Amino acid sequence: MDQKEFYSLLKRVPKAEIHLHIEAVPTIETIKALYKKRFDKEMTDEDITNLFSYEDLNGFIQAFVKIQDLFTCEDDLNYVFDDLEEYLLENNIVYTEAFFAPTAFLKKGFEYPKMTAIFSKKIAQIKKKHGIVIKLLMDVSRTFGCENAMKNYNLLKEYPCKDVIGIGLGGAEIKGPAAEYAPVFEQAIKDGIHAVAHAGEDVGPESMWDTINLLHAERIGHGITAYQDEKLMEELKKSQLPLEVCPTSNVFTKHYVKSISEHPIRTFFDKGIFVTVNTDDPVFFKTTLIEEFWKLHSEANFSIEEIKTLVKNAFNALFISAKKKKEWCQKVDEAFNA
Predict the structure, then answer these.
(1) φ and ψ at 243, to 5 degrees?
(2) Which helix (H) or strand (E) holds 279?
(3) 84 with 134: CB under 8 angstroms?
(4) Which residues, listed in sequence order, are joined to residue 134 by a DSSP beta bridge?
(5) Which pLDDT belongs to residue 54?
(6) If you write DSSP's letter for every residue of 176-220 in order, what string do you get?
């Protein structure tokens, strides 16, 4: 199947995405508008080039923080959801469980209840217009330490929001070992809050073991270094703990994966490990969800039938009922068969 046919097919197929940072969805036009508002001057092409010039995960995180710094008030978060809406429509993503990272905004003086009120308003509007379901996971973040992560979690508990369904651990993995965040995750599990964590992205399989054994995460973001540990791969196959794989993002860091063709997602899939496909940060990595599937088909030898399985895996990894999962998977089958 050529690229045009593939894109036409995947455009018709309903999809879910479970590893997506909403602050990394804004378009260049939105970033320029926020920059103008923040600094009262136009953003030059050189400024854009410098912002998106990074060579490793830490450099990317610094750029991510710079974009967060462009927001001057809670109302600016409306831009995020306008661009998120466009991104979801373009990729026919009907359900997403996406991350938002509040710390940088809270440090700027934003009020958490005002933030979640905007989230809920925009999410309701998008669902009413398009039927798209958006749920959020608070990224408690390694970047600012465990004490700050617990403060974030306490805000989630103090100001319940039906659209915020859990927590995630993101940020620079090498600077924030998973084990340090066990108290936050233990409390979340005790409170019945969903919990996921980035692991095995920039650190070896030991990080994934800690995420499994100490954090008891319900999904693992990235998880690519599992290929270094046969025992870990066997455990993942046995437990069917979903991996939120982000192929282009993983290639970008070039720490463990240099190309899509050598990405371990092929090995994971063949071994029966539960893998899903995601973009991570579409604007930063210049990709889309449909593009990720195309790369796996054209460069990693995933057949159309295997692509269909990957699409259904994302629905099966959602925090929804078994009945809803079955209904969505039937719709995926119908779209492919049509």
Answers:
(1) -105, 130
(2) none
(3) yes
(4) 96
(5) 77
(6) S-GGGGHHHHHHHHHHT-EEEEEESSSS-HHHHHHIIIII--SSE
Radius of gyration (C-alpha) of the chain in whole angstroms: 19
**Rounded average pLDDT per 10-residue block, the chain, 338 residues:** 95 98 92 94 90 78 86 95 97 98 94 98 98 98 94 97 97 90 97 97 95 98 97 98 96 86 97 98 93 98 98 98 98 96
CB 157 within 8 Å of CB 140? no
Q: Are 91 and 290 in contact (CB under 8 A)?
A: yes
Predicted local confidence at residue 1, as pLDDT: 86
**Whether the Cβ atoms of residue 30 and residue 79 lie closer than 8 Å to each other:** yes
CA distance 244 to 178: 17
pTM metric for this prediction: 0.95
Whole-number Cα distances in Å, 155 to 116, 229, 337 = 11, 37, 45
Q: Which two tokens stand for residue 25?
A: 């969805």
CB count within 10 Å of CB 45 equals 7
User: For 121, how many CA atoms within 13 A lie in the half-sphere containing its CB?
Assistant: 13
201 is catalytic: yes
Structure tokens at 72: 């001057």
Task: Identify the pLDDT of residue 10.
Answer: 98
DSSP 3-state of 320: coil
Of the candidates 173, 201, 244, 291, the residue annotated as catalytic is 201
The amino acid occupying position 100 is F
Q: Within 10 A of 156 (CB to CB), how many other CB atoms are there?
A: 23
Distance (Å) of CA 44 to CA 31, 41, 47, 62: 11, 9, 5, 19
Q: What's the pLDDT at 106?
A: 96
Q: What is the number of alpha carbons within 13 Å of residue 153 lying toward its C-beta?
A: 28
State how far Cα 52 lies from the chain centre.
19
Q: How far is CA 315 from the centre of its chain?
A: 14
